[in-house]
Amino acid sequence: MENVASKPLLRAILDAKGRDDGKPVDTNANAIPVRRVLALAEALARKPLANSRVLDIACQEGCYALEFALTGAEAVGVEAREYHAQRARICAEQTGMGDRVQFEIGDIRAITEASHGRFDIVLMLGILYHLDATDAAETLSRLEALTDDLLIIDTHIALSAKASFDWRGRDYDGAFVREHGDNDTEEQRKARRQASIDNTFAFYFTKQALARLLFECGFTIVMEALTPLDATKPTDRATFVAMKRPVRQGQLYPWIHLLSEDQIAAAAQSYLPALPGGGRVKAARLANKLLHKLGFTLTPR
Looking at residue 4, what DSSP letter applies? Predict the structure, then answer.
């Protein structure tokens, strides 16, 4: 069998992934998250990968979409920047996967079931933390509507709640992070290939806020993946799998099935000790929310 990964042009493009200057680097570190995502999909998906339809959003050079295509899946990659889309198409040609994977230029915030159809597996890898807070929530909601099985997210997270925003009447904690200068032009923003394409600020969710948001969007099971191991992952980055699965009703505690998730959370408060500094935390969130509206930079740390 031909070793497609040994082709010099393909190797050069994949090894330069994540660099703004486009120069290959002497590393194969990207193999680690690719291995993790493939393992999670194969272990948790209800269908064999070969029978699946996969959407890779903000795909850059398309390595995840291509890996799934190489298993036999039908894959679609959406990328906002022409630079990355062109390189992804070269990679598809080099691997012989041109008939199984389609790469297109588009804004991931505009992806809907009407525009792209339904998918068994959706990959949101390295993009959520580049989105504005409300855009992130709305995008996740639209992705839920077109996902039949798994949504796999790899993202930076806020290690503490420094700000919050309201979406559909609920506050979600995290931190606002600057992506571009206030006066940067459209050309300057698009030239930064490891940043958002237009929004000045992005939002890092806390783990708890992201899990709650995914649940509110319609995913019933949300898990953080700790293995396969990834020693390159910083402490403020995590991999999540959101699934649509029925939640079985137990028989020993039937009372819980009569309550909403909010009612269950409220009932659980009586079992929890009071946390120190609760008032200070709320005051800090309110202050940061105001500062963000005034244009100040807020960081996740």
Answer: G
Determine the angle formed by the axes of helices 63-70 and 31-44, rounding to 10 degrees.
50
Say how many domains are in the chain.
Answer: 1
d(CA 13, CA 229): 25
Q: Give the distance, in angstroms, between the CA of residue 192 and the centroid of all CA atoms in the same chain.
A: 19
In a domain, 24, yes or no: yes
Query: One digit per residue, pLDDT tens: the chain, 301 residues?
Result: 467 778 889 988 888 887 666 565 655 778 899 999 999 999 999 999 999 999 999 999 999 999 999 999 999 999 999 999 999 999 999 999 999 999 999 999 999 999 999 999 999 999 999 999 999 999 999 999 999 999 999 999 999 999 999 999 999 999 999 999 999 999 999 889 889 999 999 999 999 999 999 999 999 999 999 999 998 899 999 999 999 999 888 999 998 888 998 898 888 887 766 655 556 666 666 666 666 666 655 554 4
Q: Which pTM does this prediction carry?
A: 0.88
Its domain, for residue 67, covers 4-293
Is the CB of residue 44 less than 8 Å from the CB of residue 150?
yes
Residue 158 lies inside a defined structural domain of this protein: yes
Position 109 in a domain = yes
Residue 58 in any domain: the answer is yes
What's 104's domain CATH number?
3.40.50.150
